Amino acid sequence: MSEDLPGAGEQILLAGLGNPGPRYAGNRHNIGFLVLDELAARVGGKFKAHKGGAEVLEGRLANRRVVLTKPRSFMNLSGGPVSGTAKFFKIAPDGIVVVHDELDLPFGALKLKLGGGDNGHNGLRSITKSLGTKDYYRVRFGVDRPPGRMDPADYVLKDFSTVERKELAFEIDRCADAVEALIGTGLTAAQNAFHAG
């Protein structure tokens, strides 16, 4: 097994970040939820409400036991549901993979990493605070910078553009592939496969 494999053979927690409710469903900020929905389709199950304020689905991906979770809190409070779910399933931070939107990457670009700062992302800041560590895996999905002088906080709460929506299903599928590669082959191999040039 690769030494940079999340969770060293144990169960993995895959957490997608977003905001609950139909009003936010198509927002850039909700890409984590959209990718988790694709992974849930691959597992072949439906999310169920779980104590601690999250929706959860257990299954298998890339020959690993996985727990898929979507916090039911708002983005800025993601830490409680993610850390609570991790504790319930006895998953250490190095077995957690968080899928989230990233302003500093062009639309659809993917970057996978372990640890690091939150880069102004309030969902990550909340998770780091709740876990007490930055050492969890992140799959960053590029949503690009806002145009002109638009506030980034407003931009991420807007839906993907018409042009982006034409590519969105493909990019979500590719991001789900990257998550599977990360937990199946390890960080370095997944980075080599999915990081652009």
From TrEMBL:
Leader sequence segment: none
TM region positions: none
UniProt cross-references to InterPro entries, sorted A to Z: Pept_tRNA_hydro, Pept_tRNA_hydro_CS, Pept_tRNA_hydro_sf
A Pfam family that the UniProt record links to this protein: Pept_tRNA_hydro
Reactions catalysed according to its record: an N-acyl-L-alpha-aminoacyl-tRNA + H2O = an N-acyl-L-amino acid + a tRNA + H(+)
Feature type site, description Stabilizes the basic form of H active site to accept a proton: D101
Key word Membrane present: no
Residues annotated as catalytic: H29
Key words, A-Z: Cytoplasm, Hydrolase, RNA-binding, tRNA-binding
Cellular compartment(s): Cytoplasm
Entry binding sites for tRNA: Y24, F74, N76, N122
GO-annotated molecular function: hydrolase activity
EC number: 3.1.1.29
Residue(s) at site: Discriminates between blocked and unblocked aminoacyl-tRNA: N19
Quaternary assembly: Monomer.
Family designation: Belongs to the PTH family.
Role this protein plays: Hydrolyzes ribosome-free peptidyl-tRNAs (with 1 or more amino acids incorporated), which drop off the ribosome during protein synthesis, or as a result of ribosome stalling.
Protein name: Peptidyl-tRNA hydrolase
Source organism: Amycolatopsis minnesotensis
Gene name of this polypeptide: pth
